[in-house]
Structures are given as C-alpha cells and as structure tokens.
Amino acid sequence: MNTRHIFKLFNNSLIPQTICRRYSYKVVKRPDPKTLKMPTPGSAPSLMEIIREKIRLNGPITVAEYMHIVATNPTEGYYMKKDVIGEAGDFITSPEISQLFGEILGVWFYAETQKMGTGKPLQIVELGPGKGTLLLDILRVISRLGFEPADISLHLVEISSTMQTVQANKLCISHREVDIELPHNYEGETVSGIKVYWYNDLKKVPNKFSWYIAHEFFDVLPIHKFEKTENGWRELLIDLDGQGKLYYRISAEETKSVKLLIRPPLDSGDRTELEISARSLGIARQLAHRVDEHGGIALIADYGHEGEKGDTFRAFHKHKVVDPLENPGHCDLTADVDFSQLRVAAAKTSSSENFALVMGPVKQKDFLERCQAESRLKVLMDNAKSETDKEKIKMAYDMLVEPAKMGDRFKFMAFYPSSMVDLLNKFPPLGFSTPPKS
User: Fold this and answer.
1) Which of 48, 52, 374, 404 has the most Cβ atoms closer than 10 angstroms to its Cβ?
2) Where are the alpha helices (DSSP H) in 267-386?
3) For residues 141 and 109, is the Cβ–Cβ distance under 8 A?
4) Which residue has the higher pLDDT, 418 or 18?
5) Which GO terms describe its molecular function (predicted)?
6) CB 237 within 8 A of CB 54
7) Cβ(279)–Cβ(221) below 8 Å
8) What is the pLDDT of residues 187-208, one digit of tens each?
9) Which of helix, strand or coil describes residue 31?
C-alpha cells in the first residue's frame, strides 16, 4: 500500500475520533429590558469623575462630546435630574415670561396654514418642550379657531424623563408609560381629549402634516469648536491638567470633525473661529425634508447670529454666566445658534430635492410686532384686574421685544414646503416681511 493510501485511511478512520472539534453552544439568558433600572442619582459617579476617567482612558475629548455627556447622562445629566427652567432654575424662556408669546405663535401657525388648506388633521410637534407652557398657550388659541380635539395630536420630542413628567402634569389629565415596542415611550390625554405622545428622537414621530416648533432647542445641541492656525483649521479639545482640572487645548493634527464639517461656505471669509453643530445641521435637514415631503411648517426661535460670531460657548447657573468647564451637570451649557448654517442645511437649491423654502432669520422684536403683538398686549392690559397686573404685563412684553433684552438677540426662522414658492411670493409670510401700511 503506497503512502497516499495510508494517509487517506488514517484521515478517514482516526482523525474524526481523535481531533475533530464539534460546535457547541451555551445558552445565555438576556435581561428583560422592562426590568432594568437605572442607578439612583446619589449612587452613580459624578459627571466630573465620568469625564476625567474618559479623558484618562481615551485622551482629550471634543466640546461636542463634553456637552453630550453633561446634558444626557442618564442619572447625572443636567436635564435629567431636575426642572431647570424658571426663576428658581438657571434660565427662563419666553413662554414663561408672557402668555402673549405662545398666543402669537398659535395665531402665526394658523394664519400661515390657511394658505395651504384646513390643516386638519394636525400634528403639533415640539422639540424640547420645556415645561409645556408654549403648547398650552397655542392650544388655547387654536381651540377658538375651529380646531376640535379630534383634529389635533401632540408629539413631544424629549430625552429627559424629569422634564417629561413636568410636561405631562401640565398638559394631561392622565398619562402613562407604554410598551417598549412602540415608537413613543409615554402617552397621555388632555382634559379635552387631545392625544399626547412623547419620543426620544424626531425620527420616530409619524410623517404627517405637522406644525414643528423648536424654541430654545438648537442652542443646547453639542457643538464642535474650531480655530484657524498657521497650519490650517484645528479643533479645540478638552483635556486634564496636572491638578485634574479641565482646560482647553488645540489639536495638533486635523481631527475627523475638521475633515468632515469644515467645508465651504461655512469657512468662508476671514473667520478664525468656528462653532459647528453636526446634530443641529442634521435636525434642520430632517425638518426641511418632513415639511417638504409631508406638508406643514417648521418654526425655529432661538438666540443666535448669522455667521458673524465664532466663540459663544458658555454656561448659565442661577441666571448668571459661569465657566462651562466647572461643575459639569450643575450648569446649562449653551452656544448661540448660527442661523446661516441652518439655512445651508435646510434650503432648497436648484440641484437638490426635498428641501424647504427658508424664511429669516428675523429679530424676535420684528417678528412679534409684525404679528400684531402690540394689539394683543393692549387686550391683556385692558383685561388686567389691577394697575400692578398691568405693569407686570407691560414689563413682560418689554422683556420680549426690547433690543437690549430679548428683542434683538433672539431670532426666528421658518421652513415652508418648496411647492409654496409662488404662493409666498403672492402672500408673503407673516412675521418675516413688513406688512403693507393701511
């Protein structure tokens, strides 16, 4: 018998019994998501400890990473632990200052929707709804303009369970958690029977005709900070010094963010500092696509600029500006919205599809006054019960429109379906154009 036949016989008879491996499987029991619980706030590491450990393990982090951790950590994140809006919090918003603000927005949405049709059935979608005050004021207005509870549903995009509870208690007569398989994670009903749904992502909101509201939403989204050096654009990073304190440093080489985000026209002109929020650009694009594809209007209101500023990252604590690198989780981190970037992300061009007609930005003072806010102010003052109440109403209004207060700093921008170009040329959008003199 030759050698080849010997090896063949050997392989066929001996190897299977001696060295052949068999596949084996071990059953692993996965945890039930419904039974998982987050650690209580007091038992979890502090945000400073989490950030320090992340830097020690992986090196310096971007400002965007820092903002994301501070805002959204499940137990220690700024928006996860407490209600931060109002006199007792770190900042106050326009809807909390005066009911007039939300009422004017309700009238604006209704008036602009009449150019399209009835707008029924209607989804009202708010991103970062705060305490729910703005929605409450809008609902009060449109209930008098022919909208019945069956015509409306509310869809709130909110990542904080704490703020979700605040909103539910304000808006709903009943509310509850829902099955984890559903796109929304919470639901309720108003006293009049309007259905209310909560989501942790805009992508989960149904694609239907909607009013989209983003009031003081974009300013808290994470930003990347860049500086122009003699070697080109470099990213500002956050690192640890020898004493364990956080400080800024410039990246030695181009980071991925530099390569991906700094493109014309964002880096045009003689700018030496840039703040770019990739998350903001993505959401602006989503809103534009939804409005153009499925109908509706999006309204953005925030403090910001049109590309002339470069360093606006800061923190607020008890209504005062503080160092954003100190006491993470105890301060509101924010940056002025660059409306020129939102326009680039959302505007329809001759070479693109499914993007919106972009109006604005215009100053809050101009927007409110063009929407006849002074007429509404007069009604509120005439109905005031006392001179003290009148004074409070007027002071609140001045806070909204005075240039040195909110009037100039806050801007409004709107997205319309691209199919409305001829209609808007004939009937200019309310608030974004000067009404003709009577």
Assistant:
1) 48
2) 278-294, 339-346, 364-370, 373-382
3) no
4) 418
5) protein-arginine omega-N symmetric methyltransferase activity
6) no
7) yes
8) 999 999 999 999 999 999 999 9
9) coil
Separation CA 361–CA 301 (nearest Å): 9
For residue 106, report the phi and psi dihedrals to the nearest 5 degrees.
-60, -45
- The H or E element spanning position 58 is helix 47-58
The Cα–Cα gap between 42 and 82 comes to: 13
- Please, are residues 299 and 367 in contact by the beta-carbon 8 Å criterion? no
C-alpha dihedral, 265 to 271 to 272 to 275, nearest 10°:
-60
User: Distance between CA 332 and CA 216 in Å, rounded?
Assistant: 12
Q: Which tokens hold the place of 37? A: 């619980």
- 212: tokens are 């989209």
Q: How far apart are CA 373 and CA 399, in angstroms?
A: 13
For tokens 């006054």, name the residue. Answer: 369
The two structure tokens encoding residue 380: 């509120």
Residue-wise pLDDT for 219-274, tens only, equals 999 999 999 999 999 999 999 998 999 999 999 999 999 999 998 887 777 889 99
Cα separation, 102 vs 129, in Å, equals: 12
Residues 6+ apart with CB under 8 A from 92: 85, 86, 319
Q: Tell me the longest C-alpha to C-alpha distance in the chain.
A: 118
What domains are there in the chain, each with its CATH number?
71-220+277-364+412-418 (3.40.50.150), 225-261 (no CATH)
Distances (CA, A) of 138 to 107, 203, 372, 376: 8, 24, 16, 14
AA letter at 384: A
pTM of the predicted structure, to 2 decimals: 0.87
